[in-house]
């Protein structure tokens, strides 16, 4: 936008429009012209980012020349210069690539705004949720491939017996009866795609629960083994220390007076370890 301002300032007819009109020379000017404007004021507005785009700046530029034509007579020199400056600015304004880009962007924004209004008028959120629901339903109704059926069959056979209740209820669409456990026969080709997908999801969830439970048990077992190992090693070390102390006590009667704190400390540790290992074993 500043490049257009600089071109206007360099124009041979720009002198009368550069600065605000003097009230002393033209005392009635501000009574006739209610919205005065000049090129320097427009330039300062551009530098302060007052205008959002070139079209907003053009409004003030045209205001400069319209004010001049309104205040001065048609046969006056300033009127003619104002008309020439206006024609010059129109050419620069229309040829500006920035203005063309802005116009194109504005059209796109207007188009998107209309589409957004239509979207909300038809209940956009509901439409979006409905599409998601339809896509999930399409997945559930998609027929299984041969490879998927083979994989599902292997997973079902790896399930514990208590989880076969859910398998029975899915393929028969009725509650499980204990007497039916021996009659459970599964042919994935005879059930519907929706049933096979429900079965696939059920088996995945149950196998994940089984894996998680096994991991928890494994962690507990490792933790218990670690504490047992730690206790045995500490107990052996403390035993050796107690034997050394007893030997020293046997040889030197005065040792108990000098090392009473160490003896008490070792005894307390030994008792504490015995208590802890008892709790963990339980």
Automatic annotation (TrEMBL):
Residues annotated as domain NET: 134-214
Transmembrane regions: none
Domain Bromo: 9-79
UniProt cross-references to Pfam families, sorted A to Z: BET (PF17035), Bromodomain (PF00439)
Alphabetical list of InterPro entries matching this protein: Bromodomain (IPR001487), Bromodomain-like_sf (IPR036427), Bromodomain_CS (IPR018359), NET_dom (IPR027353), NET_sf (IPR038336)
Top-rank taxon, per record: Eukaryota
Entry keywords, A to Z: Bromodomain, Transcription, Transcription regulation
Keyword Transmembrane helix: no
PANTHER family found in the cross-reference section: OSJNBA0053K19.4 PROTEIN
Protein name as annotated: Histone acetyltransferase
């Amino acid at each position: 936008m500043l490049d257009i301002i600089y071109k206007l300032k360099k124009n041979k007819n720009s002198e009368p429009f550069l600065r605000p009109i003097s009230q002393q020379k033209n005392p009635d000017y501000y009574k006739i012209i209610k919205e005065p404007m000049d090129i320097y004021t427009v330039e300062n507005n551009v530098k302060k980012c007052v205008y959002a785009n070139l079209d907003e700046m053009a409004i003030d530029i045209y205001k400069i020349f319209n004010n001049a034509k309104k205040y001065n007579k048609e046969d006056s020199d300033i009127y003619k210069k104002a008309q020439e400056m206006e024609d010059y600015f129109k050419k620069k304004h229309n040829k500006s690539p920035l203005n063309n880009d802005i116009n194109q962007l504005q059209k796109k924004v207007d188009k998107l705004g209309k589409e957004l209004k239509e979207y909300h008028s038809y209940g956009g959120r509901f439409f979006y949720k409905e599409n998601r629901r339809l896509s999930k339903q399409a997945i559930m109704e998609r027929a299984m491939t041969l490879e998927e059926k083979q994989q599902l069959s292997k997973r079902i056979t790896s399930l514990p017996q208590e989880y076969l209740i859910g398998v029975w209820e899915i393929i028969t669409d009725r509650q499980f009866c204990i007497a039916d456990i021996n009659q459970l026969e599964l042919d994935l080709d005879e059930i519907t795609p929706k049933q096979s997908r429900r079965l696939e999801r059920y088996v995945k969830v149950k196998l994940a629960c089984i894996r998680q439970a096994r991991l928890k048990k494994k962690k507990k077992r490792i933790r218990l083994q670690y504490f047992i190992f730690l206790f045995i090693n500490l107990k052996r070390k403390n035993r050796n220390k107690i034997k050394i102390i007893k030997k020293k006590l046997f040889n030197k009667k005065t040792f108990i007076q000098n090392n009473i704190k160490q003896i008490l400390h070792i005894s307390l540790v030994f008792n504490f370890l015995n208590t802890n290992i008892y709790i963990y074993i339980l």
